Please model this.
Amino acid sequence: GAVVSQHPSWVICKSGTSVKIECRSLDFQATTMFWYRQFPKQSLMLMATSNEGSKATYEQGVEKDKFLINHASLTLSTLTVTSAHPEDSSFYICSARVQGPGPQHFGDGTRLSIL
Amino acid sequence: AQSVTQPDIHITVSEGASLELRCNYSYGATPYLFWYVQSPGQGLQLLLKYFSGDTLVQGIKGFEAEFKRSQSSFNLRKPSVHWSDAAEYFCAVGDESNTGKLIFGQGTTLQVKP
Model:
């Protein structure tokens, strides 16, 4: 149980384009989803927290107009990297949890490469 | 402020040897504690968690961890390491304001020698 699917797993696109990453909880309803960015050999950096039906809460220093997050249902959250540039290249990971105390369940991540 | 420290950035053990990965945290009350494992290019998999009760918790893949309040530690152990255990290990604590956020340690890279 507690499976989180993230798609796509790998994407390459040209500078200036927008890229959408989907995060789905397959067998549970996720009241909260999280988006992380991970640089090579480093820990996870939380970008934002999204709750179903409300605006995402962004961490300090994360551009909300660059990284658009939508949590349209209890099983789906999307991260759109707008007007992507090479410095946005990274490994992006989502996670989901149910209400109350409990672990976060992680997707397999998306490797984003901007040329 | 809350923090999680994993003192060992890199550990190498021989296959079949025992393993202990250290984790120290700072937290005001009884913490929610987690250990996750990440294989290269993958997401994180939950190994085990501690919320309350028995301070020795069992997880998947033969791992266990012990919560020691007096030492603010939550060390991960495995009696006999397998080559497939080579990965990145993250200790995390749930944040005090109960938003569901996790505070992660820096991670420990485990290398297993044949």
Remarks:
- Chain B touches chain A at residues 32, 34, 36, 41-46, 49, 51, 90, 94, 98-102, 104-107 (CB under 8 Å).
- Chain B has a mean pLDDT of 94.
- DSSP finds no helices and twelve strands in chain B.
- The CA atoms of residues 36 and 81 of chain B lie 16 Å apart.
